[in-house]
Design brief:
By secondary structure, the chain is mostly helical. About 80% of the residues lie in helices and about 0% in strands. Strands 1-2 form a two-stranded antiparallel ribbon. The termini are far apart.
Length: about 450
């Protein structure tokens, strides 16, 4: 196990090195400039489209996909709002200092353009499989947009994404739930595993429509509830917010000195963990979210892309900011605590039983992430092996839950981070190559 951990750690250092960080931020920045700041300028319009997207615009839309545009975003958010928002943010600050939060914000800002571009391509290049289901995502826009000579890149994405799902979308989530249920409620990981296996299994039997309906119900409730809890902390510490933001920005460019239980961190650690945890949380650039948006009942790629970019805005610029500011404002980041326990300590410092509330939030976040990522994984499996792979994949997915719950958390986080980078590479390459099409579709839609 030590050798395996060491090997993955070395690989992680390579794939999350300066080249990868530059590629993620650079792609998002290039797309944002090419789109003439369209994502930033259309946030209000995106929310209007989202609310209208709760139902198909006309009866013909029901024949253009399986789920409403609203539920497509909720399915995407179900996969993105997970342990990354609670444990991931805390881990970034624990290792990279408060400055890591600044780099998470930067990743999210340019990531809105990336997420928009992914969804535009997903709807524009999607297909209908032999069962009549709409299929899309990087593997399809690589194959249909770039041609046969790039098919190897589509296969590479589908392969890495299918495996990555078992890391970031399954075992990491199951491990976090089992850990928090044991530490907060003294419930054994075995019992937690059994309950999760049954609940996830029941939802997966209904396919994407059931996943989307469960996500459409749970995601708004859990996200709003967590945001309201966080806002209580911010309001009670409102006088300290300017100083906290100043510390975050200063630390992003100067590093953070050791204080209390915090070991200190340089600028590179702040950037590395801010970007890595930002991508882990909002998934902009990974190519996962467009798989859900491809199933939306729409024939307008730009409209769905505009809705899709809200995933990054809500996930990182709202939910992750709530977590990060709570940790910095309460001063808990100097205690040496890490992961979900650091976030729980920050909430408990202001709200009675705050640790219990954080634990419950994490369980809901993680549960919906397992559901959302199961759909991503099965679509990749179908691309590689055909629709016959659906049942075997779902069985393996459910079987991985108890394995994740019992495994060592540090190794799982490390493996998930590494797999994230490997699936991001083919997707980012495709977005850069398809950027002229993205710009053209956007310009045409705006002129109409």
């Amino acid at each position: 196990m030590e050798f395996l951990t060491s090997t993955v750690q070395t690989l992680n250092g390579i794939v999350w090195g300066p080249l990868m960080l530059t590629l993620i931020l650079g792609t998002g920045f290039y797309l944002m400039v090419g789109l003439k700041l369209y994502p930033v300028r259309n946030i209000a319009n995106a929310f209007r489209l989202l609310l209208r997207g709760r139902h198909p615009e006309d009866t013909h839309d029901e024949d253009r996909g399986q789920i409403t545009p609203f539920n497509a975003l909720m399915t995407s958010l179900s996969a993105t709002i997970g342990t990354g928002n609670i444990a991931g943010v805390a881990t970034a600050i624990t290792i990279g200092g408060p400055g890591a939060l600044f780099w998470m914000w930067c990743t999210a800002l340019v990531g809105m353009a990336t997420k928009y571009a992914e969804a535009v391509c997903a709807v524009h290049y999607r297909e209908v499989d032999e069962d009549g289901n709409y299929c899309g995502g990087p593997m399809y826009y690589i194959k249909n947009g770039l041609g046969e000579k790039w098919k190897w890149l589509a296969v590479a994405f589908a392969f890495f994404a299918a495996i990555a799902g078992f890391g970031m979308g399954n075992t990491v989530q199951a491990n976090s739930v089992a850990d928090v249920m044991e530490s907060t409620f003294s419930i054994s990981p075995t019992i937690t595993s059994v309950v999760m296996v049954v609940l996830v299994g029941l939802v997966l039997l209904g396919g994407v429509k059931r996943i989307a309906s469960v996500a459409g119900f749970l995601v708004p409730i859990m996200a709003v509830s967590y945001i309201l809890l966080g806002l209580v902390i911010l309001v009670l510490n409102i006088a300290d917010i300017p100083a906290a933001i100043a510390l975050i920005v200063e630390s992003a460019f100067t590093g953070t000195a050791a204080q209390g239980g915090f070991a200190g961190a340089g600028i590179m650690l702040a950037i590395q963990f801010g970007v890595a945890r930002g991508v882990f949380s909002n998934e902009a650039g990974l190519g996962s979210a467009p798989i859900a948006h491809a199933a939306a009942q729409t024939d307008n790629p730009v409209k769905q892309g505009t809705i899709a970019m809200l995933g990054t805005f809500i996930d990182t610029l709202i939910v992750c900011s709530i977590t990060g500011l709570a940790i910095v404002l309460t001063g808990m980041w100097t205690t040496g605590e890490g992961g979900a326990s650091l976030t729980a300590a920050a909430f408990s410092a202001v709200i009675p039983k705050g640790d219990v509330l954080v634990s419950v939030s994490l369980c809901f976040f993680a549960f919906t992430t397992i559901l959302g990522w199961s759909y991503y994984g099965e679509r990749c499996a179908v691309y590689l092996f055909g629709t016959g792979a659906l049942v075997p994949f779902r069985v393996l997915w459910v079987a991985a839950i108890p394995l994740g719950a019992m495994a060592q958390l540090n190794f799982i986080w490390l493996l998930a981070d590494t797999l994230n980078a490997l699936m991001a590479l083919p997707n980012l390459m495709a977005l850069l190559l398809l950027s002229p099409i993205i710009f053209k579709l956007t310009k045409e839609a705006r002129s109409q």
